[in-house]
Amino acid sequence: MVAANRWFCLATQRSTVWQLWLQSKQHQLFWRNFSQILVRIRYNHYRIRITQCIITIIRRLATQPKLANVPKRKWKSVVGLEVHAQIASASKLFSGGGTSFGAPLNSSVAYFDASIPGTLPVLNRKCVESGIKTSLALGCRVNEVSMFDRKHYFYADLPNGYQITQQRAALANDGKMTFPVITPGKKVYYKTVTLLQLQLEQDSGKSLHDDYLKRSLVDLNRAGLPLMELVFAPDLETGEEAASLVKELMLILRRLQTCSCKMEEGALRVDANISIHQEGDPLGVRTEVKNIGSVRSISQAITYEINRQLETVANGGVITNETRNWDAENRRTVAMRDKEVLQDYRFMPEPNLPPLHVNLKPGSKSSEDLLSVAALSEEIPELPEDTRQRLLEQYNLNAETAIILVNEPILLDHFLNISRSLNELPNKVIYNFLINDLLTYCNKVNLDVEKCSISADDLKDILKYLNSEQINLQAARQLIELLHNNPKIKVNELIELHNLQQICSPEKIENLCQQAIANQSKAVQQYQKGKSKALFAIVGEVAKLSAQKANMKLVVQCLEKLLKPSKK
Amino acid sequence: MRRHLQWSIKKLTASYADGQLSPRRVTEQALEDALRLKTLNAFVRLTPEQAIQQAQVSEERYQRKQQSGSLDGVTIAIKDNFCTRDVHTTCASRMLQDFVPPYDATVCAKLKKAGAIILGKTNMDQFAMGAGTVDSLYGPTKNIWSEDLDQDNWRIAGGSSGGSASAVAAGLCYAAIGSDTGGSTRNPASYCGVVGLKPTYGLVSRHGLIPLVNSMDVPGIFARSVSDCVAVLNAVAGPDRLDSTTIRDPFTRLKLPEIGQIDLSTVRIGIPKEYHCQGLSAEVLETWSKVADLLECGGACVQQVSLPNTAASIFVYSILNQCEVASNMARYDGIEYGHRAEDERSTEQLYALSRAEGFNEVVKTRILTGNFLLLRKNYEHYFEKALRVRRLIAEDFVKVFEASDKEDHVDILLTPTTLTEAPLYKDFASLTNRDQCAVQDFCTQPANMAGIPAVSIPIRLSQAGLPLSLQLMSNSLNEQLLLTVASWIEGQVGFDSLENRQEYKASL
User: Fold this and answer.
1) Which of B132, B248, B254, B425 has the most CB atoms lying inside 10 A of its own CB?
2) Does B336 touch chain A (CB under 8 A)?
3) What region holds the Amidase domain (chain B) (predicted)?
4) Do B9 and B74 meet the contact criterion of CB atoms below 8 Å apart?
5) Is the pLDDT of residue A567 over 50?
C-alpha cells in the first residue's frame, strides 16, 4: 500500500480531480477500489495506465453521495452487559446433582439433569436464598411472586430441549449499582448502572467436538447448574466502565458468597451488547459479544468492538445485528456462524414448578415453604462501597487507596489486620507497603496477590522491624521476595540469615560517610559549591558501600554534618 | 372358575392372613390368566420373575404375620408410562422401545412399599395420546366385553389407559394404575365396566409418570369396586418431595362408611345441563336420568346446574395439550436415551431422523401444531387465550361447588363418562385421532382443566351387553364424599364387573 500511495501521489499531483477527492474524504473507500483495480491489473494483465485508472476511480467516487457534507457529529458508544453468575451451592438448581468444578465427565448428573423421562424439577431453596441476597445487595425490588418458563431450542447439550429460566416474572427487578471506574492514566470516577432484572435459570451441558474422529461428545456435569442472570441497562460507554462494573459485581458476589466469580471456571460469564450512534440519533444496531473469559478481556473486547463498528461505519459499511465471539488470542471479535436465523424460543410457563412466593413483610421469619426477604436482608455483610467509605472515614485513606485496597480483598484483610494490631504504625506506612511493595512485587513476578503465600503475621513482622528502624525499606522489599521463596522461614531468621539489619551505629555510619566522601570528591565539590542535589550521589555511594543497609536518615544527617565545616 | 378373583381386596388380604390363599399361588394364576388372555393385548410386558419374587416375599410376611400394608400380596398392573426400575417403560412408542428406567415412579415405589405385586406393564396409546388404545406400537387392546374377540368385530377398550382397564375387567389383577390427562382413566373404565378414579390434581405424585400434559396429568386408579379403589388411593396418595406440584398437606387416608350407613339427605347433586350434548346415546342418557332418580329417591337433593363454558373446553384442551406435548417431547432427541437413528452426519440430521422414526403420526402432528401455537406471534392468540378460558372453565366448577347461596350450591356433579358404549374397533379406527378424542373426551376433560377429582362407575349393561357408566365429580380434595356417593350408587346398581363374555369364561 505504501508503494501504491507513492505512485498515486506522483500521478495525480496536478490533477484537479485530486482536490475533488480530497474533499470527498472517502479515503478508505478509495483505497478499497484502488487496490481492487490493482489486483485486476496484476491478474488480468490489463494494460491501463495507472493514472487513467485512478482518474476513473475518483470520478466514480465523486458521483457518490458526499459524506463530507453531512455536519460532523460526535459518535457515542453504548454498552450493556448480561452477566451469568453461577450460584455457589452444593447441588444444582432443580436436582440433587453435584456442582464441583472439574469432577470426572458426566459424574455430577442426576436423572433430572439428563432429562430422564418422568423426572421433575425441584427448586433448590439455597439457590433462591442466594438469588434474593444478591438482589438485595444490588438494590433490587424482590418480587413477591416470580415464575419459571421454558425456553426451547435444540442443542445436544440441552437434554430437555428447553432451558428453565424466568422470562415473564423474574426473581427481582430494578436494581442499581454504583462503582468506581478505573482507567489507566485517568482520574477515578463513579458510574451508576441500572440492573433491569435478576433471574434464576439453569445452565446447559457442554459439547466436545472431536474433529479428528468426527464425533461430538456431551458432558452434562454443567447441565442444570444454578445461574443468576443479571441484565444491566445499556448505561455504559466504554470497555473500562464495563470491566469496572464486573469487577465491582465480583467483589459484591464474593462478599455475599453467592458466586465464586471464577471466570476461568465459567462461574461468571459476561456477554456485552454494543452499539454506536451519533449524538442526537436513536441507538444504533447492536452486536453481542460472547465468550469473554477474563476481566481484562471485557475491556479489550468492548473497546475492540466499538472501534470495529466506528471503522465499519466510516468505511460506509452497515452494522448488522449479530453475535460475535471474543478471540482472546488474536484480540478481536469474530462473527459467529449459524446464528443468522432469528431464534423463536417458543416460551411457555414451566408447568412442573408452582410460582415462587416470598414473604415481603418486614420483620418476618422464613418458614419451610416461604422465604422471608427481611430475614435474608439481615444476612448481608458489609458491601465494598461501604468498606471504602469506612476506610475514608475511619482510617483517613484517600479515595484511590481505598479503591485499590477494596479491589484486592487480601490486601484489605492485611491492611485491617495489621492496622488493628500495630496501632503505633501510621496507616500510610501500612498501605504504602502493601500497595507499593507487596502488590508491585506480585505484579512483577506475575503472581495473583490472592495466591501470594506471605501471611499477615509475616507482613506485620516486617513492618514492625521497619518501623523500629531495625531494617530499612530496601531490606523490607527484599524480605517480601525472600518470604515468598522460603515460606517456612520466619522473618527474624531471614533477617539474620541474610544480614539485613539496618546499620545505625553512629561510628559505622560516619565511617561509611567518610569513605563515600573520599570516593565522590567531585560530588562533594559540587555540593560544597551549593548544588544541594549532589548530596544524592554521596548518599547513593553510602548505600552502595553498605549494601543498601545503612540507615539513610542517619547517613544524610551525618553527611550534612561532615560536609558543613568545610563549607565555611 | 377362580372365585377369588371376584373378591374384594379386603377379603383377599384377609384370606392371605388366615392362610386360605397364598400370594404366590394367586400371582402364578394371574400370570397364567394373562397369558391365556393374550388376545386382549392388555399387557405389553409381563414381569413374572419380579412378580413371583415379590409374591414370595409377601407370603413370607404373611407367615410372619408382618404384612406391610393393605395391599400386601395384591396383584396390580401398571400403565407403561410409569417408570419402573429395571423394567422397560416404553409409552408404547418406538422412541422408548428400549428404555429401561433407572428408578421407580413414586406411585410404583409406594405400591411396592404397601406390598403390592406388580404383574407387568399395560398397553396404551403412544405417549398416552388417544382415547382408544388403538395407537400403540404393540397393537390395539381389546375390550373383554366384546361380542366377538377374534373376528373384526371386537370393541375397543378405550384409552389411553386401555390396557390397565382391560386387565382389571378381565380379572387379571385386582387393580391397575393408569394416567388421566383428559379422561384416559375414566374413558376406558367406562367402556370396560370398572371403576376408574382420577384424583385431585396434586394428590398423587406425578414423579416417574412420563408426562403428556404436566398441568393436567394425574395418576389414575382402576379397580372393580369403589372400596378397592380407595385401598389403592390410600396407598399412593400424599405429598412427594420429588413432585413440587403435589399438595403439601399430609394426606388423611379415606375411610368410607358402610353402604347401609350412608346418609344422602345432606348431599346435593348437580346435573350440568351442558353435558347433555350432541352424540350422547339414548342408553347413556337413560342411565343418567335413572341414576339421578335413584339418588333423589335415596334422599339426595338433585338439581340442574349450568357450567356454561363446557363447550369451549375441548378446544382449550386441544391447544394446551399440543403446546405441552411439543415441549415435553423436545427431550426425545436420541442423545441420552431412546431411539437413535443411524444418520449421524450432523446433530440436526440425527435429531430429525430419530424423531421421524421414533414418533407416530399422532405425536408428530401434535408436536408440529404445538410448536406453531407457541411461536411468538401466536402465543398470545392461542396459548394465553386458552389459559384464560381454562380459568373460566375452572371457575364454572368453583361457582357450583362453592356457591354462597345454599340453593345454588352442589356437592357432587353427576354426568355421563363417555357418550356411548364401547365402539367397535372398525368404526373407531375410521375416525381421525382428533375426532376420536374430541368426541370421547367431552365429559371427562373439564375435570382435568379444573384439577378436580372425578370417578367413573359402571351402572348397567347396554342392549348389546356392554357396560354403561356414569361420572361423578366433586370439588378438589373432596374424594371422601365423591367416593362415598359412588359407593352408594355401586351398592344400588349391583353391577358385576366380571360378568362378561363367554370367551373369557370358556378360557378358564
Assistant:
1) B132
2) yes
3) 27-483
4) yes
5) no
Examine the fold and report which residue of A497, A523, A556 is the final residue of a domain before the chain moves on.
A497
State the ipTM, two decimals: 0.95
Q: Are residues B253 and B384 in the same domain?
A: no
- Of B374, B389, B404, the last residue of a domain is B389
Task: Tell me the three state secondary structure of residue A567.
Answer: helix
What are the residues facing B198 on neighbouring strands? Answer: B454
Dihedral angle sign, alpha carbons of residues A165, A170, A174, A175: negative
Residues B378-415 as b/e (b if ≥16 CB within 10 A, e otherwise) read bbeebbeebeebbeebbebbebbbeeeeeeebbbbbbb
Mean model confidence pLDDT for chain A: 85
Q: Let me know whether A422 and A483 are in one domain.
A: yes
Which residue pairs from A493-501 have beta carbons closer than 8 angstroms and sit at least 24 positions apart in sequence? Answer: A495/A465, A495/A470, A495/A471, A499/A549, A500/A471, A500/A475, A500/A549, A501/A470, A501/A471, A501/A475, A501/A549
Answer yes or no: do A117 and B248 touch at CB < 8 A.
Answer: no
Q: How far is A197 from chain B (nearest CA, A)?
A: 21
SS3 B412: strand
Domain check: are A263 and A408 in the same one? no
More confident residue, B403 or A103: A103
Q: What is the residue-wise DSSP string for B12-48?
A: HHHHHHTTSS-HHHHHHHHHHHHHHTGGG--EEEE-H
Whether A435 and A547 map to the same domain: the answer is no
Give the closest residue to A84 by CA, choosing from A134, A141, A123, A156.
Answer: A134
Q: Is the dihedral of CA B417, B420, B422, B426 positive or negative?
A: negative
Position A45 scores a pLDDT of: 45
C-alpha B351, offset from chain centre:
32
**B363: CB partners within 8 A, 6+ apart:** B93, B126, B127, B129, B325, B329
Whether A154 sits inside 8 A of B348 (CB atoms) is yes
Structural contact between residues A223 and A189, judged by C-beta atoms closer than 8 angstroms: no
Catalytic annotation present for B184:
yes
Please check whether residue B356 lies inside any domain of the structure.
Answer: yes
Indicate whether A440 and A459 sit together in one domain.
Answer: yes
Per the structure block, which three cell numbers stand in for B201? 390434581
Q: How far apart are CA B101 and CA A117, in angstroms?
A: 8
Which residues of A are less than 8 Å from B79 in CB distance?
none
Can you tell me the distance from the alpha carbon of B183 to that of B131, in angstroms, rounded to the nearest whole number? 8
A117 near B CB under 8 A = yes
C-alpha cell at B249: 398437606
Distance (Å, whole) CA B352 – CA B334: 10
Closest CA to A132 of A330, A471, A418, A370: A370
Residue position matching grid coordinates 478499497? A32
| Residues B120, B186 within the same domain | yes
What would the grid cell of residue A523 be?
Answer: 560530588
CA A392 vs CA A189, A389, A399: distances in Å: 16, 5, 7
Nearest residue in B to A150, CA atom: B327
Total domains, chain A:
4
Q: Is residue B381 part of a domain?
A: yes
In the chain, the amino acid numbered B190 is S
| Residue A338 distance to chain B (closest CA, Å) | 12
Q: Given B70, B164, B166, B184, which residue is catalytic?
A: B184
pLDDT at residue B404, as a whole number: 82
- The answer for A 204-223 residues in CB contact with B (under 8 A) is 215-216, 218, 220
Cell numbers that stand for B180 in this block = 388421566
- pLDDT, chain B, mean: 94
pTM: 0.86
DSSP for A226-259, written as a single string: EEEEEEE-S-B-SHHHHHHHHHHHHHHHHHHTS-
Residue with cell 442499581: A176
